[in-house]
Specification:
six-stranded antiparallel β-sheet, Beta-Lactamase, alpha+beta, single chain
Length: about 500
């Protein structure tokens, strides 16, 4: 070699030594002219073992026969480019171990002729990371598609193949628009540009109905989650695609069922409104005329007539109570009850309840007492709801007490933020067995009498009490001992 070439090689060698990759310069015969220290480290050869030898010594034996043809192709059309674009390339160390590489080629013109510079990078770690990433993609339950900024599909998992009916080879490198309905093709690139201009994890088309399109042209509803992915090749977009056909079908069926249910509820409301009048009006008339006869206003009655009329009256009252319970339950469960809070004189309300129930207590020979402090106690709540609860509790107390008394008591004590007002209904009745106490407030549950038979009624009284108490923000508690009596407490904020 001439002195000028030697100086030129020395300069080039200095540049090569500073490169982070293995750098090899080869002539058109495939002979290595120069190699840097990184090449020695990467391949395990000393520089003296490389210079003047064919470059095929650095590649696996299975590629050696084809490699000279590729080299001649490069020298026939020399230009800077990656070697084997889209292919997996391998290097071979001195000890025979193979490893994945990336190679960038560029021509180098000298007075001695054209040379080729190869920058060789060990991509073992990157391939390992890509393998892990690919494994994650394959294990994902959704279709996973990775797209570059041009909209070209870079990766797709097996679930994507299954979901859209395309093989992976039919997707890689193709526009992602082939996975969406044709009517959206024109608008989609603009949406993609918007994502890459402000990349962040987000659902695609929030609150919009999205559709995918299979290879056979069939469309199906999808949900798509987008997230940015930084790579050596630049920013990519990852799309997780889920087929929501079953969910949409379920939602449609649910909407249809709700429409039918609403219609049924409206029909029920109309029925209840009608029954409220059609059932209560004649019953009240029957009870009214029965009471008139028992009072002897039309004329005196003999004992048998009086007994029979009292049976009519008792059964009429019972039937009216059943109807009221069922109508109240329907009104509560349909949400037709409205809360109308007002200031209530608690003692006045308790006296009013006692006046209405005293005839029932008198019939059984029970003492019905009202116990209240000598001061005004007010509570803000819905008068009708509180009154209904107290009537039900007191009526139950009378019903299940054969002798003794029923006491309606009012008390007040300081609470954390405001006073607590308590209405307590205590009886000396039969009490409640321990096994019955857990289901006491359940709908349509009836506790057993001492004879082992359920008492008359719908089993709705206490359930309605508890529901109404929740409705007005109150609480009901109780204590009971079988054979000795019970005590129910309604507690409200003052």
């Amino acid at each position: 070699m001439s002195g000028e070439l030697e100086r030129s090689q020395a300069y080039i060698a200095a540049v090569l030594e500073s490169a982070p990759d293995a750098m090899v310069i080869v002539n058109n015969q495939g002979e290595i002219q120069l190699a840097n220290a990184e090449t020695e480290t990467l391949f395990g050869y000393h520089r003296e073992e490389l210079i003047g030898h064919h470059v095929e010594m650095l590649i696996p034996d299975r590629y050696c026969d084809r490699h000279p043809g590729h080299r001649l192709g490069f020298f026939a059309a020399p230009r800077a480019r990656p070697m084997g674009a889209g292919l997996d390339l391998w290097g071979k160390r001195k000890d025979g171990v193979e490893f994945p590489v990336e190679i960038s080629l560029s021509p180098f013109d000298t007075k001695e002729g054209l040379l080729a510079t190869a920058a060789i990078r060990d991509v073992t770690e990157r391939k390992r990371a890509e393998g892990k990433f690919s494994g994650l993609l394959e294990s994902a339950p959704d279709g996973m598609v990775i797209v570059n900024q041009k909209g070209e599909i870079q990766l797709a998992n097996a679930e994507t193949e299954k979901l859209f009916g395309y093989s992976r080879e039919e997707l890689i490198g193709r526009p992602v628009e082939r996975l969406i309905p044709v009517r959206y093709h024109e608008r989609h690139p603009a949406h993609r540009t918007d994502f890459f201009s402000e990349p962040r994890a987000r659902p695609m088309g929030a609150e919009l109905e999205l559709s995918g399109r299979r290879k056979d042209g069939v469309e199906f509803p999808v949900e798509i989650s987008l997230s940015p992915l930084e790579t050596e090749d630049g920013l990519l977009a990852t799309a997780a695609i889920r087929d929501v056909t079953q969910r949409k079908r379920f939602e449609r069926d649910l909407r249809e069922a709700n429409v039918k249910l609403q219609a049924a509820n409206q029909a029920k409301d109309r029925f209840l409104a009608s029954m409220s009048h059609e059932l209560r009006t004649p019953l009240n008339a029957i009870l009214g005329f029965t009471g008139t006869l028992l009072m002897g206003l039309p004329g005196p009655l003999n004992d048998d007539q009086t007994s029979q009329l009292r049976t009519v009256q008792t059964n009429g009252r019972h039937l009216l109570s059943l109807i009221n319970d069922l109508l109240d339950l329907a009104r509560i469960e349909s949400g037709k009850m409205e809360l109308r809070p007002e200031r209530i004189d608690a003692q006045e309300l308790l006296e009013d309840v006692a006046v209405g129930l005293r005839p029932l207590a008198d019939e059984k020979g029970l003492e019905l007492a009202v116990v209240a402090p000598h001061k005004l106690i007010e509570v803000r709540s819905d008068r009708r709801a509180v009154r209904q609860i107290l009537i039900n509790l007191a009526n139950n107390a009378i019903k299940f007490t054969d002798e003794g008394s029923v006491r309606l008591q009012l008390s007040e004590e300081d609470g954390v933020a405001q006073p607590l007002v308590r209405f307590t209904v205590t009886d000396t009745g039969r009490g409640i067995k321990a096994r019955d106490q857990e289901r006491l407030f359940a709908a349509f549950e009836q506790i057993d009498s001492s004879a082992g038979q359920p008492y008359e009624g719908t089993g709705l009284g206490l359930y309605i009490c508890q529901t109404l108490a929740t409705f007005i923000g109150a609480a009901i508690t109780f204590e009971s001992e079988f054979g000795l009596g019970s005590s129910f407490v309604l507690e409200l904020s003052g």
